Amino acid sequence: MTNQEIQSKILQLREFLNSCNYKYYVLAQPDISDYEYDIKMAELQKLETDYPEFDDPNSPTKRVGDDTNIEFVQVQHKYPMLSLGNTYSEADLREFDARIRRLTDKPFTYDCELKFDGTSISLTYDHGQLIRAVTRGDGVHGDDVTANVRTIKSIPLTLNNTTQYPDFFEIRGEILMPHASLQRLNAEREEIGEPPLANCRNAAAGALKTQNSAAVAKRGLDCYLYYLMMDSQPTDSHFENMQLAKSWGFKTSEHVKKASDISQVLDYIAYWDRERENLPYDIDGIVIKIDSISLREQLGFTAKTPRWAIAYKFKAEEAASPLISIDYQVGRTGVITPVANLEPVHLAGTTVRRATLHNADIIKSLDLHYGDTVFIEKGGEVIPKITRVDISKRKPGALPVKYIENCPVCGAPLVRNEGEAGSYCPNYQHCPPQITGKIIHFVTRKAMDINCGEATIELLYKQGLIHSPADLYDLTAPQMARLERFAEKSAKNFVESVRNSVNVPFPRVLYALGIRHVGEQAAKNLAKHFHSIENLRNASIEQIAEVNDIGEIMAESVYQWFRNEENIEMLARLEKAGLQFHTDETEVSSAPTSEKLAGLNIIVTGSFATPQRRAELEQMVEQNGGKLQSGVNAKTNFVVAGDKPGASKIAKAEKLGTKIISETEFLAMIEPQA
Ligand code: IVH
Questions:
Q1: Is 439 inside any structural domain?
Q2: CATH code at 550?
Q3: Is 29 helix (H, G, I), strand (E, B) or coil?
Q4: 576 burial via Cβ count (<10 Å: 0-12, 13-18, 19+)
Q5: H/E stretch holding 48
Q6: Listing from the earlier edge strand, what are the strands of the sheet with 283-290?
Q7: At CA 63, angle to CA 58 and CA 66, rounded to 5?
Q8: What is the DSSP letter of 123?
Q9: pLDDT band at 651; cut points 50, 70, 90
Q10: Structural domain ending residue among the three candidates 335, 364, 393
């Protein structure tokens, strides 16, 4: 193929995949199978790797994000991002309507919209390309979160080129986390001993500020757009403009409704106050906007809010019920979760019998006493939470709830680390739910991918056949076939699946070990930095904490894990079984083609002319024999700093007297000598 043919093939694949994305994520009407999609995506990925000259930050392949540390840059909004006046009352809405009617005598209509409970975002498009995504911030300045936003599949990176979108415009909307994503995320967090996220709004806002776009890509975020910002709008109707925006490729709400007077607005509100429990995401109210853009301009703004729109907020649905008792559940990593048993009570369409209390701190801040009547609310979570206590119903002499001090299963004294809200059972080698929990985690698909369910692990444990993941590798087919649930064939399959797991790559092995706080992404970062179990085992807490996105608590947890006798013994057995304890160096960095930077440790920080430029500079370090670091330490020789470099990195470099150089100075170091 000629270069031109390759380029046109790449463009054609991108267009095809973009339209598949639109059909799947915006219209919810996919017309090809996942398999066909994956094949085309792989084809595009290969072409882009082979021909980097045709790279494009808006290519559909970029949806997966990357794991370089993003440092957010603050930018000024072209148009300030204002908020809306809020009300909880019908009287206020009638007054809002009356005020507008005093200001105009022309007829007008309202648009009623759902008020999404997420985090607001402003997207800028230039000739059909997403060029910038900025958070609300203080309304005047926000954070540039473009790299993270590119991973949200319902946000078009390139607009439908069959439509007449404006050359340059801004569009605003809400990034949210659907209930299903929060549930999945919390299940994963529980796996690694992290406390669950309390609600969808915080989870969405938190995800957007994650300094690692590959991690954001996995959060399952969604985005609805509801406001076009440009000096001259395509039509005078907001409703029609949003229909147009939908045709350009944006996800807009299907629940927007026109209302010709305030009584229709009130009907819409009443409808959604009942129906919102059936939505797959949270809304916290209804937004009422005047449809006509020219009337909006005529009405204008007060200092902080537009006169042409108002938000009606729902009162959170709550119910009150007496507390019967508290159960303390022991999770797979020993984390204790207190759960309240309540007198059954009706809330938002279901009967509630249990409510989560999260941890000891929450119980304390609620000032919960035995026998208290408590208020419960539903967020995105399946299990509701207790929001406050009805003190007026407290019985005289009631005692405050005393948090348990010993594990309810094995009796070991619980431990609570400074700075952590939760307590946990430290007896992870002998506490039964932790032993089986650890092995269950070890076999899961994302870890060693051994073909067996939780029930099998429980059975093997009960039969005394396994106490540690390492025991799995000693099981034989005849031994398994003797178990009641196994036939000869399934026993053979199981043993074979265990044997095949020795080929699982090192980052997943590291994740499978179930070190507290070490999730999939952290395991990848650690593997990339240290290359082998041996190096990681020998690293100090400080050295571990230098890795991307690894904090002090995680570093301490990893360090201590390698100092435990039983873990050391387990590792020795796993190594003997043939598990992958190191990465193939070539996987991590390409072989150097020059020695100009041999022996030098270098880090690249800040933003450069384009996002790819930073990746190119990093590649140059490795190609010239240098070692790329992710954090500054005593061994760092040079910090290559772009615009707005990481403040902590610069501070550390200055403290250590490490040389900080510019891109030009760096290029001079590797320039071919004349
Ligand atoms: S319109 C001038 N429409 O609610 C402000 N906002 O305080 C125009 N929100 O910051 C905003 N759903 O984050 C608008 N359908 C919707 C919305 C919506 C949620 C959020 C938005 C804004 C806040 C209002």
A1: yes
A2: 1.10.150.20
A3: coil
A4: exposed
A5: helix 34-50
A6: 86-87, 309-313, 283-290, 110-116, 257-259
A7: 100
A8: E
A9: confident
A10: 393
Range of the domain at 20: 3-64
Are residues 92 and 185 both part of a single domain? yes
Both 102 and 211 in one domain: the answer is yes
Q: Which amino acid is it at 379?
A: G
Q: Considering the domain boundaries, does residue 424 fall inside one?
A: no
Q: Which atom of ligand 1 is nearest to the CA of 113?
A: 15
- Residue 597: is its pLDDT beyond 70? yes
Ligand 1 pocket, residue 426 CB under 6 Å: no
Q: Which residue has the tokens 């700075």?
A: 419
Give the pLDDT band (50/70/90) at residue 611.
low
pLDDT of 143 > 90? The answer is yes
Domain CATH number, residue 606 = 3.40.50.10190
Is 287 near ligand 1, meaning CB less than 6 Å away? yes
Q: How confident is the model at residue 586 (pLDDT cuts 50, 70, 90)?
A: very low
Mean pLDDT of the chain: 89
Q: Which amino acid is at 308?
A: W
Contacts of 325 (CB under 8 A, 6+ apart): 340, 341
pLDDT of amino acid 67 = 62
d(CA 475, CA 3) in angstroms, rounded, equals 55
pLDDT of residue 72: 85
Q: Is residue 83 lining ligand 1, measured as CB closer than 6 Å?
A: yes
**Partner residues linked to 534 by β-bridges:** none
Residue of 588, 449, 467 lying closest to 529 (CA atoms): 588
Q: What is the pLDDT of residue 268?
A: 97
d(CA 379, CA 200): 8
Write down the H helix ranges in 484-540. Answer: 488-500, 506-512, 520-530, 533-538
**Strand residue runs (E) in 306-458:** 309-313, 318-330, 336-347, 350-356, 373-377, 385-389
Q: In the chain, how long is the greatest CA-to-CA distance?
A: 90
First to last CA, the chain: 36
Residue 585 has pLDDT above 70, yes or no: no
pLDDT at residue number 588? 44
254 DSSP 8-state letter: T
Q: Mind listing the pLDDT tens digit for each residue in 58-109?
A: 999 988 777 666 678 889 999 999 889 989 899 999 999 999 999 999 999 9
Least confident of 195-204, 397-406, 425-434: 195-204
Alpha carbon 123 to its chain centroid, in Å, reads 19
Total domain count for the chain? 5
Does the residue 414 lie in any domain? no
In angstroms, what is the span from residue 175 Cα to ligand 1's centroid?
11
Distance from C-alpha of 523 to C-alpha of 537, rounded to nearest angstrom? 14
Q: Which position has the higher pLDDT, 658 or 317?
A: 658
Residue 77 CB less than 6 A away from ligand 1? no
Confidence of residue 240 (pLDDT cuts 50, 70, 90): very high
Asked, for residue 500, whether it belongs to a domain, the answer is yes
Contact assessment for residue 177 and residue 204, using Cβ atoms and an 8 Å cutoff: yes
- Name the residues annotated as catalytic: 115
Confidence of residue 633 (pLDDT cuts 50, 70, 90): confident
Residue with tokens 């559940």, as numbered in its chain: 329
Ligand 1 atom nearest to 227, measured from its CA: 1
Examine the domain organization and report whether 136 and 94 are in the same domain.
yes
Residue environment code for 630-641, b if the CB has 16+ CB neighbours within 10 A, otherwise e: bbbbeebebbbb
Q: Residues 517, 518, 523, CA angle at the centre, nearest 5°? A: 165
Atom of ligand 1 nearest to the CA of 86: 7
Check if the beta carbon of residue 420 is closer than 8 Å to that of residue 334.
Answer: no
State whether the beta carbon of 82 lies less than 6 angstroms from ligand 1: yes
pTM above 0.70, yes or no: no
Whether residue 519 sits in one domain with residue 474? yes
SS3 191: helix
- Compute the distance from residue 115 Cα to the ligand 1 centre, in Å: 6
